[in-house]
């Protein structure tokens, strides 16, 4: 019933040439007068609705869905509290300080359903929202599936980052067979402080982030810090590609593989990694492969070692078994395989065996 009425109303709207057919009228008794969403990046979205009916409006719900990679479309439904009346102005604020935030440029859709005391229903058509960081005037540059957004630095700054991004994608495809399946948006903030201003509860060390389910990267790169910025771009883009490729409802990737591929794709290991790895070998306090399958330690020294070992593990796997095997491994993870199960299927050894083999490789 409701669908038919909505469709009829839509046809009427289109027939009348109304340019904004988002407000669908169910029946003359129940009219949605206005619907809007006000964005306050990065903390909140204020939704508001005004509606009128010949009898009391008794039920108002807001529905929204965030555009992200997932296995089931998730729609959130909010029951709006209000005093039933013939004319209602309702509003609801999505306070992201309570729920966690959304990255810049993330997209969602929202719509309302309302009902009056006679049981008449009306529904607005879904309206898209792009949750942009309006604190800055963004410029953009697109090549293939990658769009770079930036606001500080000249055109060649963005072009250099674009070259880096395209090279990173090519190198990753060569080393692992993984390629970008969906569009990616890279937001380049002018510094770490600006970047952290886009996040709800940023970690003080956050210099870049990949929001893999949204297809969005955000990094703070000062134009005079381009060398670091190129590595960060490559790192976060690699996470994004690998996550797109292996997403499944059952299992994630071991952290050493996820971070290892990201740092490996950056190019030669940073001297900091090499030094830290050699220290750990000399002191015989390498971390086990099984331990770094879980999130890395928050302590700087241990965390650097975890990254250094992850780099070395990926170098070992690709160097010894080739990129075909790496592709096979990633495709096995995509099927939801366990960490040990995937290694056993592709290589015939589990993480403990890998630990032994890798230690023999690295302790020379
Ligand atoms: Zn990383």
Task: Name the hetero compounds present.
Answer: zinc ion
Order of helices and strands: HEEEEHEEEEEHEHEEHHHHHH
Largest β sheet strand count, sense and barrel closure: 7 strands, antiparallel
Going by helix content, strand content and strand pairing, the class is alpha+beta
Question: With helices defined by DSSP (H or I, 4 residues minimum), what is the helix count?
Answer: 10
The average pLDDT value, as a whole number, equals 91
Shape: elongated
Helix percentage range: 25-40%
- Please report the distance between the alpha carbons of the first and last residues: 74 Å
List the topology elements:
Blueprint: H1 2-15, E1 30-40, E2 44-66, E3 76-79, E4 85-95, H2 96-99, E5 106-116, E6 121-123, E7 127-131, E8 139-143, E9 146-150, H3 155-176, E10 184-189, H4 192-196, E11 208-211, E12 216-220, H5 226-246, H6 255-265, H7 271-282, H8 300-334, H9 339-347, H10 351-362
Parallel strand pairs: 9-10, 10-12
Antiparallel strand pairs: 1-2, 2-3, 2-4, 2-5, 5-6, 5-7, 8-9, 11-12
This protein binds zinc ion.
Zinc ion binds at residues 235, 239, 259, 262.
């Amino acid at each position: 019933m409701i669908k038919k009425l909505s469709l009829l109303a839509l046809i009427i709207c289109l027939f009348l040439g109304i340019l904004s057919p988002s407000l669908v009228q169910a029946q003359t008794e129940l009219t949605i007068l206005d619907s809007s969403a006000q964005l306050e990046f990065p903390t909140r979205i204020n939704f508001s609705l005004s509606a009128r009916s010949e009898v009391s409006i008794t039920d108002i719900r807001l529905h929204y869905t965030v555009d992200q990679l997932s296995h089931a479309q998730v729609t959130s439904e909010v029951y709006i509290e209000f005093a039933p009346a013939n004319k209602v102005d309702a509003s609801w604020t999505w306070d992201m300080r309570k729920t966690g935030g959304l990255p810049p440029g993330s997209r969602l859709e929202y719509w309302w359903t309302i009902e009056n005391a006679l049981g008449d229903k009306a529904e607005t058509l879904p309206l898209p929202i792009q949750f942009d960081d309006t604190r800055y005037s963004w410029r953009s540059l697109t090549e293939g599936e990658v769009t770079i957004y930036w606001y500080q630095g000249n055109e060649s700054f963005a072009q250099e980052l674009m070259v880096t991004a395209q090279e990173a994608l090519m190198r990753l495809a060569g080393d692992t067979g993984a390629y970008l399946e969906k569009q990616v948006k890279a937001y380049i903030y002018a510094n770490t402080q600006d970047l952290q201003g886009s996040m709800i509860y940023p970690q003080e060390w956050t210099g870049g982030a990949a929001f893999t389910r949204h297809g969005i990267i955000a990094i703070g790169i000062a134009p005079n810090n381009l060398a670091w910025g190129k590595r960060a771009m490559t790192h976060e883009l690699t996470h994004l590609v690998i996550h797109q490729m292996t997403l499944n409802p059952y299992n994630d990737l071991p952290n050493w593989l996820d971070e290892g591929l990201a740092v490996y794709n950056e190019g030669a290991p940073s001297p900091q990694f090499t030094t830290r790895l050699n220290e750990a070998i000399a002191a015989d306090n390498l971390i086990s492969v099984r331990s770094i399958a879980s999130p890395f330690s928050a302590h700087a020294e241990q965390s650097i070692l975890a990254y250094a070992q992850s780099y070395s593990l990926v170098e070992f796997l690709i160097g010894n078994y080739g990129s075909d095997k790496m592709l096979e491994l990633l495709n096995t993870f995509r099927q939801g395989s366990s960490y040990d199960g995937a290694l056993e299927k592709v290589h015939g050894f589990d993480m403990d065996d890998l630990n032994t083999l890798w230690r023999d490789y690295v302790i020379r």
